[in-house]
Amino acid sequence: MTTTDAAPAIGTTLVIGATGTTGSRTCARLTAAGHTVRAAGRRATPVPGADAVAFDWYEPATHAAALAGTDRVYVVPPVGDPDPAAVVLPFLRRARAAGVRRAVLLSASSVAEGGPAVGRVHAALPGIFDEWAVLRPSWFMQNFTGGHLHARSIRTEGVIRTATGTGRVGFVDAEDIAAVAVRALTAVRAPDTDLVLTGPEALGYDDVAAILTEVTGAPVTHRSLSHAEMRERLAGLMPAGFATMLADMDRAIAAGAEDRVTDSVPRFTGRPATGFRAVVERERARGAGADAR
What we know:
Elements: E1 12-16, H1 21-32, E2 37-41, E3 51-54, H2 63-67, E4 70-75, H3 85-97, E5 102-106, H4 118-128, E6 131-137, H5 149-157, E7 159-162, E8 168-169, H6 174-186, E9 194-197, E10 203-204, H7 205-216, E11 221-224, H8 227-235, H9 240-254, H10 264-269, H11 276-286
Parallel strand pairs: 1-2, 1-4, 2-3, 4-5, 5-6, 6-9, 7-11
Antiparallel strand pairs: 8-10
């Protein structure tokens, strides 16, 4: 796929999770390019340039209105659901029957096709749509600047706690994820594959803490926990099963599972992937966490 491969005109695109980290950015890029967008969320929150529509994964009565007249969809599965396939797959089959031709699914680099949770949706997607893509981004750079647990502990304590040890991650900018999502949604030819999305370099959490300290001028340290300590910490904030899954992901990082860099972002956007330092500087300039770290 080349950067000149965009379709001259497409129909309405339904963006699920339109106020979320990647959904909001995908909406903004689509509307800026002149595409018609239906912004779906539980509260039908107004989104500039888009038609806001109420959508709840667990309320099928909201699905028909969201799908009416759409021909492609950006799918962000329900967050925190250990079995998203139970609600996402019936919706996708309904979408295909309603005339949706292309689906772009947000998954994760840590979840392979046919794996747990959204991996089941990934495996089924090509059997539902002729035009499709699965985006598998690495961990978001915005986890350190927005409302994530890491960002909150950075602002309040100057500490990042993980069970990743010295493991490295190809952290990716959410803006880059959105840029690839828009290409996958609007290009003449769909990718018809899964794309692992990373930034330009793999960093350990010690590296992340050092960059945050340098850019913000406020000290940030990485505190390494054991798997059991991380699981116990998370279990006080979320359901035990989800806490265990996240702690397991940290353990996988420690073993090297996320120590990789791919060319998916530059290949699909025509520009280099954004580095972590640049993202911290940009988000700080925008005011995300600028009052602290």
